[in-house]
Structure formats: C-alpha cells, structure tokens
Design a protein that fits this description.
Layout (H helix, E strand, L loop, with lengths): L1 E6 L3 E6 L4 E5 L2 E5 L6 E5 L8 E6 L16 E6 L4 E4 L1 E3 L2 E3 L2 E3 L15 H11 L21 E9 L3 E8 L2 E9 L5 H19 L9 E7 L2 E7 L6 H8 L4 H20 L12 E3 L4 E3 L5 H7 L14 H4 L7 H16 L9 H9 L2 E2 L8 H10 L10 H19 L15 E2 L1
Antiparallel strand pairs: 1-2, 2-3, 3-4, 5-6, 5-7, 6-8, 8-11, 9-10, 12-13, 13-14, 14-16, 15-16, 17-18, 19-20
Helix pairs in contact: 4-7, 4-10, 7-9, 9-10
Protein name: non-specific serine/threonine protein kinase
Catalytic activity: L-threonyl-[protein] + ATP = O-phospho-L-threonyl-[protein] + ADP + H(+); L-seryl-[protein] + ATP = O-phospho-L-seryl-[protein] + ADP + H(+)
GO molecular function: ATP binding; protein serine/threonine kinase activity
Length: 428
C-alpha cells in the first residue's frame, strides 16, 4: 500500500508501507529502503507565506494521508528517528496530522545537514503522546500545548540540547529542548529545580528589549522552553557582515541594550553572559537573549576558551571571586566597543590569552576618533573595580546625553563611523 503527498512544482512524495521511500524534488530522484526508522522534514523557505512543515516522531493521528498541497516547499533534510512517525503539513492555517510506519534511509539533499539520531530522540521524547505534558504547579498558563507546536530545523546548539525554529499558535518561535543529564541524578535534580525557577522568572518579564517568553513544558527526560523567534540574527553576525554601523545607529542599539539590562537588573536578574552573540536584531530594536535557561547551561559546564565568553567576562568572574550585577555592566562596555568598532574584542588572542590579559588590566583599544562621551562610558563600564562601574540607569542617562551632544555638534542625525582597529589592547 502506498500513499502520495504532492506539493505542486516542488515536491512529490510516495510513501510505501512495505518497501522504500521515494522523494522527487524537481528533477532529483531518490529511492530509499532497507533501514527502519525515518523522519522527513519539509520546510517552506518562502518569506511571504512563512509556513513551516515538519515530520517528526510521534504516536497518534489519523490512519491515512489526505491529499494536501502547498504554495511552496522543499525537502530540507531527513534523519533517522522512530519507526512511528507523524508527517505534518501546514497549509495556510491548517495543520494536518497523519500516522504511518515506513522504512527508509536518511536523505541529505545538497548543502543540507541532517540532524543527529540523538537530536531526533529529543524531539520524539517531547512529542510522544504516550506521556502527558507537564507544566509547573501554579503556573499552568505557561504550559505549552504540544499539539499546536510544529518543530522546524535546528539553528543553534547548547550544552544539553538544541534550539529549533518552530511554529506555535501560528507564530514563529524558537524552541529550546534540554536533555536530562544521564547517569548523574544529582545534576539532573539541580537542573530540574533551576528550570522551574527560571520559567517562573521568565514568565514575569515583559520588555521590548528582552526576548519574549512564550511558554515551557517538561516530559520524561526533556525540558522545553519557547521564546519568540527573532529572524535578524545576532548582533555579532550583523557586525561581521556590515562592520561598524553609523554612530547614530550604534548609540540607538546601545540604548536598546542598556534599557533592557536596566529592566532585568530592576527585577534582580543578572545576565552573566552579556555579549554580541546573545543580542538579537529585531526589526526595530535589539533584544537581549540567553539570560534565563541558558544560565543553567553555563553553570553546569566547565567554561572553555572556545565559548568565546572570556572576551566579554568581568575579571572578578574569571578569578572566581564573588560578584554582583556589575559584571553585566563590564560586559556592556565591551559590547559598546564592538558597536563602535565592529571588531571582535581581543581578536588576535585566544580565549585564555584574553582572560589573562583582562585580569592583568588589558582592555580593547578605543579608536582615536571615537567621541569622548562614548569613550568615557566604555572606560567607566569596564573599570576593574566593580564599585566604580555605573548602574544601567546611569548608563542609559549617559548615552541619552551623548546622543543629544553628538547630534547638536555634528548637525546631522547620521554620524560618521569610527575607525576599526585590529591592534593589541592597551594596558591601563
């Protein structure tokens, strides 16, 4: 018995219950068979319609495939998974679920990377209908309805899981799936407690410059947290493509970040890992990310030079001394330097070398043509003495004053860029 799913002009698929799996994409043709367990992901890459379709391991659904069609779509990647699979197709506002069991090899189209088997198992565990979705006692409003979640491709990876682009209640979201540590019950219990604490904290935060929390849930072996999806990518990738923005824009971005951090600190939230990789470029503002569950990961793994975090880390954290919310102010000073120059801090050093240099008093070189008002903010923020660093309320005020002064002195809202530097850091 076989059933066919047709996506006009793009994909035609025939799933054979007794044999292999056929996938036709334009003029490409593949025949598969012989290995049990396969899940197929189909993603619409159209920005106009923005639909995401995903086939993943799941139990339940209808007994046969209906005929469905989409305006656009492509086979993105396929991967090994459970032999019981659900193929979900999203057509405008309609999500159609089916169930079947079939055989096949994994298919990796040109320039695509397949998900790992363990990655599929995480998704399978989350979507497994044999186990009820659990929320947090007293916070049921934040519990995710798994039936409304359509998981797409992974785009980032952490210590205990991956982050996926997905659709939830007809909105684009980012889904982080965390795996319960194996063979370490003490750590698993600690992570579970921290997860509950973080969800309660995240659910209480609402600010335009802070990544919006959507919901969370847990199932045996996995925890899931959902936030809004920001398609503009990180500030680091933005700077890598466009170098230093005009000063007008750099100050606006700096104000977004400092206002978001002012809000977090007013709610007793310390970020601990503020850097350009954790700042996301939305359509009209910068949003702070990775201040919640990501801290679980940071506290649960050994910090390594490869993480790159050392380049933004306050010296007291590197020396394992007690620290306060002022570590975020230090990191902001480095981020402001990035906005002004477009460069990576301590670019010619390894992470360990950068850490050693910072503890010895080194700081990135400030361009000679950088306005004094901005130079002073950076120097104050990355002061070696945490007590000498300003609060974010003071940083916001200083940046607003700098914005007014520079606008009046230059006479145009579009300032020039500062010079970009690749030299060695100065020693204070």
């Amino acid at each position: 018995m076989s059933v066919k799913v047709s996506l006009p002009q793009y994909v035609s698929m025939t799933i054979d219950y007794n044999g292999g799996f056929r996938a036709v994409r334009e003029h490409d043709y593949c025949k598969l068979g012989g290995v049990s367990g396969m899940s197929v992901d189909i993603h619409d890459t159209s920005e106009d319609d923005g639909s995401i379709c995903h086939g993943d391991s799941m139990y339940g659904g209808e007994s046969s495939f209906p005929d469905v069609s989409m305006q656009s779509g492509s086979i993105s990647h396929s991967s090994m998974g459970s032999s019981n699979s659900r193929l979900g197709l999203l057509h405008r506002d309609r999500y159609i679920k089916t169930r079947t069991t079939f055989s096949g090899h994994s298919v990796v189209p040109r320039s695509k990377v397949a998900q790992s088997t363990s990655d599929d198992l995480l998704i399978s565990a989350l979507l497994d209908e044999r186990y009820p979705t659990e929320g947090l006692e007293g916070y049921q409003e934040w519990t995710v309805d798994i039936s409304r979640l359509i998981i797409g491709p992974a785009f980032a990876q952490g210590a205990f899981g991956r982050i996926y682009k997905a659709s939830y209640n007809c909105q684009d979201v980012a889904v982080k799936i965390l795996e319960r540590p194996r063979n370490d019950n003490e750590r698993a219990l600690l992570l579970e407690q921290q997860f509950a604490q973080e969800v309660v904290m995240l659910g209480s935060l609402r600010h335009k410059n802070v990544l919006r929390f959507v919901g969370a849930c847990q199932k045996p072996g996995v925890w899931c947290i959902i936030t809004e999806y920001v398609k503009g990518g990180s500030l680091r990738s933005y700077l890598a493509k466009k170098r230093a923005p005009p000063l007008r824009l750099a100050i606006r971005h700096a104000l977004d970040i400092s206002r978001g951090m002012e809000y977090l600190h007013s709610n007793a939230v310390i970020h601990r890992d503020l850097k350009s990789d954790n700042l996301l470029m939305a359509d009209r503002c910068v949003k702070i990310a990775d201040f919640g569950v990501a801290r679980i990961e940071v506290h649960s793994e050994d910090m390594t030079p490869e993480t790159g975090t050392y380049r933004w880390m306050a010296p007291e954290m590197m020396q394992n001394r007690s620290y306060t919310h002022k570590v975020d102010v230090y990191s902001f000073g480095i981020v402001l330097w990035e906005l002004i120059t477009g460069d990576i801090p301590f670019q010619k050093m390894t992470g360990v070398q950068a850490a050693s240099a910072v503890v010895s008093g080194a700081r990135p070189i400030i361009p000679t043509d950088c306005p004094d008002t901005l130079s002073k903010i950076m120097i104050c923020c990355w002061d070696a003495n945490p007590d000498c660093r300003p609060s974010f309320s003071e940083v916001v005020s200083l940046l607003e004053d700098a914005q007014v002064v520079l606008t009046e002195s230059i006479g145009t809202p579009r300032f020039r860029r500062c010079s970009c530097l690749n030299g060695s850091p100065t020693i204070e």
